[in-house]
Amino acid sequence: xxxxxxxxxxxxxxxxxxxxxxxxxxxxxxxxxxxxxxxxxxxxxxxxxxxxxxxxxxxxxxxxxxxxxxxxxxxxxxxxxxxxxxxxxxxxxxxxxxxxxxxxxxxxxxxxxxxxxxxxxxxxxxxxxxxxxxxxxxxxxxxxxxxxxxxxxxxxxxxxxxxxxxxxxxxxxxxxxxxxxxxxxxxxxxxxxxxxxxxxxxxxxxxxxxxxxxxxxxxxxxxxxxxxxxxxxxxxxxxxxxxxxxxxxxxxxxxxxxxxxxxxxxxxxxxxxxxxxxxxxxxxxxxxxxxxxxxxxxxxxxxxxxxxxxxxxxxxxxxxxxxxxxxxxxxxxxxxxxxxxxxxxxxxxxx
Length: 351
Hints:
By secondary structure, the chain is of the alpha/beta class. It is about 70% helix and about 10% strand. It is built from twelve helices and five strands.
C-alpha cells in the first residue's frame, strides 16, 4: 500500500515546492473521486434518479484524470481543474436538486480548495465564480421557489459565507506563503553557510596538511641534525681518546689536556674494547700532555690499570712531569702496582 501511494504521488519534477503541491492535488483529487463513487453507490441503493449519479460519475472520472495530470508535473493546471470540477459539480447538483437548500453552502469547500492549492493572488476568482454561479443557479429555479423567502436567505447567507471564508482563507494563505518564503530564505542562508563552512574546513584541512608536512620535514631535518651531532660526538670522542697500536700486542693511549669524568669513561671503554677485540698485552698510558692530575684522575687511572690487568694485560704509565709527580705525592696517592716510566721510549723497553 505504501509503495502504491509512493508511486502514485511521484511527481516528475525536481522542484520541491511543485512536488508538494502536486502531492496535495493528487490526494484531494483521489479523495473526491472516492467520495463521489461512494455517493453513487448510496444513491443507487436508495433508488434515486440517475441524473446526479451520472454527473458524479463524470466528475469522478475527471478527478482521476486530473490526478495523473498532476503526477506529470502540471500541478498549477491540475490545481485549477480540481477547483473547477468541484464548483461545477456543486452547481450542477444545486440545479438538479432544487428542493435541497443546503447544497449552496457546499461551495465553501471549493473556496477551501483554492486557499490550499493556489497562491494568495489567485484565490479571489474562485469566490467570485462561486457567488455568481450560486446566484445564477438559484435564479434558474421555478418562480415559486425563487420567490420563497427561504431560498432568498440561502442565496444571501451562502454568498456571505463564501466571501467570508475566501477572505479568511486569503489571509491564512498569505501568512503561510510569507512563512514559506522566510523558511526558503533561511534554508538558502543555511545552505550558503554550510557551503562556506565546508570551504573553510577544506581550507583549514589544507593548512593543517601543509603545517603537518612542514613539521614532518622539520622533524626529519632535526633527526638528521641530531644523528650528525651524535656522529660528530662519537668522532670527537674517538679523537680525544685515541688508541694507537704500535705493535701486534702493544697500544699507546696518549692523553692531552684536561681530563674529566667523561674522558675517563671514554678512555675506559676505548681501551677495554680494543683489548677485547685485538688481544693487546700491553697498554701504555701517555700523560705527557696532561697538565694536572688530581686525586680523582689518579684513582681513575688506577682503576683502568686494574681493569686491564683483569683482562690479562699490563699497564704502563708514562710521561709524568715533575710538577705532576709532586702533586701526586702531595695528595698522598698510591699508584700501587702501576708501572711508570719517564718517556715513551722507556715504556717500550719495559713491555
